[in-house]
Known about the structure:
Layout: H1 2-63, E1 72-75, E2 85-89, E3 98-100, E4 105-112, E5 116-121, E6 128-131, E7 134-141, E8 147-150, E9 160-163, E10 168-176, E11 183-188, E12 196-200
Antiparallel strand pairs: 1-12, 2-5, 3-4, 3-12, 4-5, 6-7, 6-9, 7-8, 8-11, 9-10, 10-11
Amino acid sequence: MKNKSIFFIILFIIIISRSSILNLINNTFKLYLNKDNTLEINYLNDEITRLKEEYNKLLDFKNNINIDEDYTITNVYKNNYGFDKLIINGDNYNLYDEVLTTEGLIGYISKINNKYSEISYIYNTKVPVRINDNYGKIISSDKDNNIIISEIDNANLNDPVYSVNNSYIGKVIKIDNMDLNTTITVKPIDLKNIDYVLVRSV
């Protein structure tokens, strides 16, 4: 009998307090939803901001390209590895395609994988180059990743250096006549902090 009385008392309290209880449940539920919505809205706003910044970088990159031939623009993976290679998005390229920034040539496609490709930096290649009307080739690099060129005897300091496809590589900063063969040191364009590149078939 006592248990029955307690039950009716609890039931009575619930009935007269149902409005307050429902409000409490409703407000708690709304608070939880609003908190989730706020987090989601903040995340979406941050993502929109990031995408706008990426778009503006890409637009700025494209607007500074002065190449008439067909080319592909792609992004550089942030998790590039090592010091002699760079990883770019995409696999629809050919081996030895030129890879450039708006400043000039940074390297060549050296390996094509599934969905991404590898670039060998210009200083790690043995490709032919042109200074004025003279042709030579890259033979090595120094500790600062400047390019060492041989087989060119007629060059001056600050002469521009180009690939055989007329892509700018850098400028002459040193001429060494001590050896039997003259070697020329070339400072390449900036190879750091690259977000986008263009790939041109050669």
